[in-house]
Amino acid sequence: MLEPDAIPVTQSFTAAERELLMAVRELVVxxxxxxxxxxxxxDMGETDLRAVRFVMAAARAxxxxxxxxxxxxxxxxxxxxxxxxxxLMTAGHVERRPHPTDGRRKIVVPTPRAYAAxxxxxxxxxxxxxxxxxxxxxxxxxxxxxxxxxxxxxxRDESSHG
Length: 162
Fold this sequence. Notes:
By secondary structure, the chain is mostly helical. It is built from six helices and two strands. The protein has a two-stranded antiparallel ribbon with strand order 1-2. Helix 3 packs across helix 4. The longest helix has 27 residues. It is globular, with a radius of gyration of 20 Å. The protein starts with 14 loop residues before the first helix and ends with a helix. The mean pLDDT is 91.
């Protein structure tokens, strides 16, 4: 067991720093709770919802998504991804289609049902989030974005040391 003096201590947080970091922590917790509730309301697991959202984001960006990319995004095996995609196809949320340039591969695309279900469940929340973003004064946005970007970088760095 380490003696108290042997435990590395970081510099104490100021009240303002603590307040900011606690607000971010609450945001992360609220986001996790919202996703859990959304997946329950949409009658799918949280990983299934993450997959559908990933496929939808790729489609909105005008790119195609392969099952392998879905597996990488979710951090699961390709075998588990096959089972997940089969489940999402049966539920009517995604389709597998031939790859546009490589006939040996498949792409995964969201269905109109996936868009409709997501829109139905999230329209109110998205409107309120957009209003919250719009309420941030333009002069404060660079600082907010820099703060959030730096926190994201720190968290990703810590994740990669896993």
